[in-house]
């Protein structure tokens, strides 16, 4: 990995990093987030899970805001072996990252805020959604941690389609997802967009 740092034109610092998406790291993330789909584990070039580009780390000073992640993909999500240039801007409570391919084309961006601690919960929601609608089809996946739960707690996930439409030449569907703990409390919510086969 090669890292360079510079100042943006508006004065906010940013970091530019070149990364190779590694199969082992994707498998490790899939394991940590309980992502069981074969596309994350068995493929020679596994696709990244929906929240992979949002990372798993917390943001310093962000413990007084809800943990949220918002990952957008401008086409199919990247795969192991892809080389990406990442520009990261850290705010007081949040982080924005842009991912570009070798041609400089923006292929994804990710916004994260909060103290973390939501990786396993939102991973289960993402796993539920991609088992239902397909891991290569995700175009946006936004999550919010509502209630902290133990990492090994069994969660019940549910989802519903709220809108079907066409955007960027694709048939798409928006869904709302909920993860509920054993006591019936809502642990996390997600709002997602998936491309649908024509």
Describe what you observe in this structure.
The protein has helices at 23-32, 38-41, 119-133, and strands spanning 2-7, 13-20, 68-73, 83-90, 94-100, 106-113, 138-145, 156-167, 170-180, 186-196. A ten-stranded antiparallel beta sheet has the order 1-2-4-5-6-3-7-10-9-8. The protein is built from three helices and ten strands, in the order E-E-H-H-E-E-E-E-H-E-E-E-E. A hairpin with a 3-residue loop joins strand 4 (83-90) and strand 5. It is globular, with a radius of gyration of 17 Å. It has 198 residues and is mainly beta.
Q: What are the SSEs and their pairings?
A:
Layout: E1 2-7, E2 13-20, H1 23-32, H2 38-41, E3 68-73, E4 83-90, E5 94-100, E6 106-113, H3 119-133, E7 138-145, E8 156-167, E9 170-180, E10 186-196
Antiparallel strand pairs: 1-2, 2-4, 3-6, 3-7, 4-5, 5-6, 7-10, 8-9, 9-10
* Biggest beta-sheet profile: 10 strands, antiparallel
How many beta-strand runs?
A: 10
DSSP helical segment count: 3
First and last CA, distance: 39 Å
In spatial order, strands of the major sheet run 1-2-4-5-6-3-7-10-9-8
Estimate percent helicity: 10-25%
Structural class: mainly beta
pLDDT averaged residue by residue = 83
Radius of gyration: 17 Å
Strand residue percentage: 35-45%
Which stretches of 5+ consecutive residues score pLDDT under 50?
1-11, 58-63
Listing every helix as H and every strand as E from the N terminus to the C terminus, the arrangement reads EEHHEEEEHEEEE
Instruction: Identify the quaternary structure here.
Output: single chain
How does the overall form come out from the CA principal axes?
globular
């Amino acid at each position: 990995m090669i890292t360079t740092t510079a100042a943006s034109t508006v004065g906010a610092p940013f970091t530019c990093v070149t990364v190779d998406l590694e199969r082992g790291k994707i498998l490790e993330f899939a394991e940590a987030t309980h992502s069981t789909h074969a596309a994350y584990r068995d493929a020679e070039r596994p696709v990244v899970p929906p929240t992979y580009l949002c990372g798993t780390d917390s943001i310093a000073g962000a413990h007084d805001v809800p943990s949220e992640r918002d990952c957008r993909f401008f086409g199919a999500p990247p795969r192991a072996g892809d080389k990406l240039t990442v520009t990261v801007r850290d705010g007081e409570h949040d982080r924005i990252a842009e991912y570009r391919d070798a041609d400089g084309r923006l292929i994804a961006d990710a916004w994260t805020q909060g103290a973390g601690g939501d990786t396993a919960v939102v991973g289960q929601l993402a796993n539920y959604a991609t088992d239902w609608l397909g891991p290569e089809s995700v175009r946006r996946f936004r999550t919010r941690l509502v209630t902290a739960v133990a990492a090994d707690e069994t969660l019940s996930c549910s989802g519903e389609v709220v809108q079907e439409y066409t955007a960027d030449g694709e048939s798409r569907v928006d869904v709302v997802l909920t993860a509920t703990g054993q006591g019936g409390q809502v642990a996390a919510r997600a709002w997602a967009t998936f491309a649908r086969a024509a």
